[in-house]
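Job type: complex structure
Entries:
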Amino acid sequence: MPFTLKQLRYFVATAETGSVTLAAQRVNISQPSVSAAIAELEARFGVDLFVRHHAQGLSLTPAGRELLTDAKSLLDHADDVRLGAMGLGQDLAGELHIGCFQTVAPLILPHLIGIFARQHSEISVKLHENHVQGVLDGLRAGEFEFALTYDLGLDDDIEFDTLTEVPLHCILAKDHPLARHKAVAIAELIQYPLVLLALPHSRDYFLSIIYGLGLQPRVAHETPNFEMVRGLVAHSDAFSIMHSRPLSEWSLDGKRLAFLPIKEKLRPTRLGLARLRKLRPTRRSLAFAALCHLHFQGK
Amino acid sequence: MPFTLKQLRYFVATAETGSVTLAAQRVNISQPSVSAAIAELEARFGVDLFVRHHAQGLSLTPAGRELLTDAKSLLDHADDVRLGAMGLGQDLAGELHIGCFQTVAPLILPHLIGIFARQHSEISVKLHENHVQGVLDGLRAGEFEFALTYDLGLDDDIEFDTLTEVPLHCILAKDHPLARHKAVAIAELIQYPLVLLALPHSRDYFLSIIYGLGLQPRVAHETPNFEMVRGLVAHSDAFSIMHSRPLSEWSLDGKRLAFLPIKEKLRPTRLGLARLRKLRPTRRSLAFAALCHLHFQGK
DNA sequence: TTGGAATGATAAAAAGATTTTCCTGTTCCG
DNA sequence: CGGAACAGGAAAATCTTTTTATCATTCCAA
């Protein structure tokens, strides 16, 4: 770098006061420092910036005048960057990148983001949807600051802040033989084929629950598409299990669905906010986290 | 200043290489320096800029990504300023501020500037016209780099580069009794009233020439307006003396004028380029000076 | 499973800048 | 002519930056 911002600052102060001494006072520094800074700029650029009037200040040369304009604009720019950077962690403005487990996202986030947008109109929320493992990878890759997801596959480097516990549900077609019960056991469901939501991690998690009960599922289909699962179930006697419970009881192609709680006592799955333990949270993300807590507290 | 351009450069290099070590190589510096620069930026801004993946590089946080954009733009800006400043003395581009004695300006400069503009289309010439003293003041005040003027009132701090010698002329109305001579002596003219070009310095200079010949002028009028002098002479039997010899033999209001050389041997007045001795000339001004010499050499 | 290679962080020493103090020379002004 | 104001220079002091050396962590291959 042929010059520093500091030198530019001293130069501008000198140009504007027309005196090295006054400039030094203005930037709270000794006079020779300013003198040296200017001398170095002149040497670096190979131009005289000032005409010195011995014992009565100095005035800009044409070259100095040109540099003055540029220097000021650069200093202003630097200040913008500084303000922007200071605000990165502090201000309730800018961008907030949030990761979210994809099946949860459309059920919860539109509402939360709506409220958040009204409270903090300066913050623009950017969403990153992915499966459970992808969300954790995204956190580690710094794609977003925190993520709304289940407490699945967490490692020590992830801090998990529980918002609510979600019970496991099964999905059945509305006209399924078991659909009119209040709740149903996986042991009963196991006689029907299973449609598996085949997302990384989730897939194995669902299977592990079933195996854990000593049962052997008959997997009719598996698909990573959430709506596909619902559709397949709606049109057959198959069942599926998942945590996310959409309010809509209709599949995308218009068939009715039933959602029943599972009878078996299982380790409760938690929905919450995951973040990298070693990264300090920004004020923006804390604000959103607070909103999440408020939202789930009321339930 | 909360940060330096250097720190920003290291930060950008790190962000772009995804590695402190690679960044250090790219900017030709040791790895701990880069590490320290980033740490300081993070401390100053109060935000984590990177997620460190121990032993396998780092990746940007959302905050880091935001800063990256700003940092790059600031560095680009700084580079523009640097290039601009380097060019201040070197490039044949930008602005060239020229001072000029006002009575000389319209006689010579339009032609010279025309040629110069064609040779150096990147340079825009800015003219500062003034009287002899004003031109010297302007030089000292740094308003322009050099000036086209007469060798009058020069001090030691001014370097004068002679272009040509100009003889003293007298101006008379075309129908003046003395107007049909080839040349005329001030001793003859002195019987007629004098119209004095009353510019600072010039005025006293003209008077000193006359007094120096032991003559006493009758000053009919004095005016700082060059065309006014010509007009007053054109409409009377008065005379005036000056160095600048316009090619036009007409006053602004359409009367004919005669220009005659002065017979007396006087110290020749020189037209040339004046500049502050202590200021180093830019390449731009040297180019213009060269053109001036070329122009007057041919005469 | 283990040892080596790669990587970032840290500490201490070295090198380099910046800053300050003190001083000089110039110019202006009463 | 003497004092005040000002820029610039020199040397010492102080701060920063850089480097060297080392450590801890992780990955990868044997």
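Summary: The CA atoms of residues 81 and 216 of chain A lie 60 Å apart. Residues 19-21, 31-32, 35-36, 39, 52-58 of chain A lie near DNA strand D (CB under 10 Å from a C1').
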